[in-house]
Specification:
Distance between the termini: 73 Å
Largest sheet: 6 strands, antiparallel
Strand order of the largest sheet: 1-10-9-4-3-2
Radius of gyration: 24 Å
Number of helices: 2
Number of strands: 10
Shape: globular
Length: 150
C-alpha cells in the first residue's frame, strides 16, 4: 500500500501556487464587481452621480447662508454663498473620491486628506485635490432644492 502512495503524483509547489493565484484572481474580480458604483436599482432619492433627472433634496432652508449642507446619500453638496444664491457640486473629492463631510468656514471640507473647496465655485483652496468639484445645476421649486447632476 505504501508503494501506491509513493507512485502517485505529488502536488507540486508550482501547481499549488498557480491554483492559489487563480483563486485570488477570481476573488479580486468579485471584490471589484462588488465595489461598482452602479447598483442597478432606481430609487427616487438617486445617487447624485448616476441620477438622470433632478434630485429633490428637500427644503432650501436646510442650507445656511454663507455655508452649505452635504447630502451624503446623494453625494451632493449644496451651498449658499450669498442670500438666495444656491450652488451644487458633487460631494466626491477629486483627490481620492472620499465624500466631503462638512461645510465650515466658507469651505467644503474633505476628511480624508484635507482638501478644501470654495463654496461659491467648488475651486480647490487647499489640499491634494487636483481639480475643482464638478458643478451641478440647482434650482429652488416650491421652496425645495432640485439638483440635476451633470
Amino acid at each position: 500500500m505504501s508503494e501506491a502512495l509513493e507512485t502517485s503524483p505529488a502536488t507540486s509547489r508550482r501547481t499549488l501556487l498557480c491554483g492559489a493565484a487563480a483563486v485570488l484572481a477570481a476573488g479580486g474580480a468579485v471584490a471589484v464587481t462588488g465595489c461598482s458604483s452602479s447598483s442597478g436599482s432606481s430609487g427616487s432619492s438617486g445617487s447624485g452621480s448616476t441620477a438622470k433627472g433632478p434630485v429633490d433634496l428637500g427644503p432650501a432652508s436646510a442650507v445656511p447662508e454663507g455655508g452649505g449642507t452635504v447630502f451624503r446619500e446623494q453625494k451632493i453638496v449644496v451651498t449658499q454663498p450669498t442670500a438666495g444664491q444656491y450652488k451644487a457640486f458633487s460631494a466626491k473629492c477629486t483627490h481620492a473620491g472620499c465624500v466631503v463631510d462638512q461645510v465650515k468656514n466658507a469651505q467644503i471640507q474633505c476628511p480624508c486628506h484635507g482638501s478644501r473647496f470654495g463654496i461659491a465655485d467648488g475651486a480647490v483652496q487647499d489640499g491634494p485635490a487636483p481639480t475643482p468639484l464638478p458643478a451641478y445645476t440647482v434650482t429652488v421649486e416650491g421652496g425645495n432644492l432640485k439638483v440635476t447632476p451633470s
